[in-house]
C-alpha cells in the first residue's frame, strides 16, 4: 500500500467554535492507481491534499505514505517527503521567476536526485513546451505556466502525484491531452495519481473516483 489514511480529521476555527471540514477520512491507494477526487467548492479537497503532502497536519488520524507516518514527521521530515516521494501540482504554479522553462522543469528532479534529461525533454515535447524552453515564466500564458508546473512535477518521477485541478486553466482539448500525458507518465513510473477535478469527463478517465461531501468520502 503506497498511501493509507485512517480516520483523518480536521476542523478550522469558526466564529462559533471549530467547523469540521474532514470527519474521519479513510482512504487507501496502491502504487499505479489513479483516483479522481470530486466535491463541491469548500468541501475540503485541497485541505485533504495538503495533509497528504505534509503541508498541513490533521487533528486526529494517521496518514501513512511509502511506509512513513506523515503525521509523525517533523518539519524536516515532511520537507524530505515533499522532495523525494510526493509531487504536488497546485492551482498556483509556483514557478521560479529567475529560471527559464527548461530549468524550472528540471528543478524538482534535481532536488530529488532524479534528473533525467531524456525524460524532461520528452515531457516538454508531450506538453507542447518545446518552443518555450528558453523563456521565463512571466513570458508565458497561464495555461503554459500550468503545463510547466505539471512537467516539473512529472519530471521528478515522484511515487505519488497530488494534483489540485491541474488542468483548470486549459481548454477542454488541451486538458484531455495533458491528462493523457499525466496518465502515461504515472503508468510508466508506477506512480499513483490523486487528482482533484470538477470535470466529470476527466474524472471518468481515472481508475477510481471518490466524492467528498460533509467531511466524508463516498
Ligand atoms: N486556513 C484555513 N483557515 C480557516 N478555514 C479554512 C482554511 N483553509 C480552508 N478553510 C475552510 O475549509 C473548508 C475547505 O476548504 P478547501 O480549500 O479544502 O476546499 P476545496 O474543496 O478544496 O474547495 P475548492 O474546490 O473551492 O478549491 C472551506 O470552508 C474553507 O473556508
UniProtKB/TrEMBL annotation:
Cellular component per GO?
plasma membrane
Q: Which PANTHER family match?
A: IMPORT ATP-BINDING PROTEIN (PTHR24220), TRANSPORTER, PUTATIVE-RELATED (PTHR24220:SF659)
Do you know which CDD domains this protein is assigned to?
A: ABC_MJ0796_LolCDE_FtsE
GO MF annotation: an example: ATP hydrolysis activity
InterPro entries listed in its UniProt record: AAA+_ATPase, ABC_transporter-like_ATP-bd, ABC_transporter-like_CS, ABC_transpr_LolD-like, MacB-like_ATP-bd, P-loop_NTPase
Record domain ABC transporter: where: 3-218
> What is the name attached to this protein's record?
Putative ABC transport system ATP-binding protein
Keywords from the named record: ATP-binding, Nucleotide-binding, Transport
Q: Does the keyword DNA-binding apply?
A: no
Q: Which SUPFAM superfamilies does the UniProt record give? A: P-loop containing nucleoside triphosphate hydrolases
Is Nuclease one of the keywords?
no
One Pfam family name from the record? ABC_tran
What organism, scientifically named, is this protein from? Citreimonas salinaria
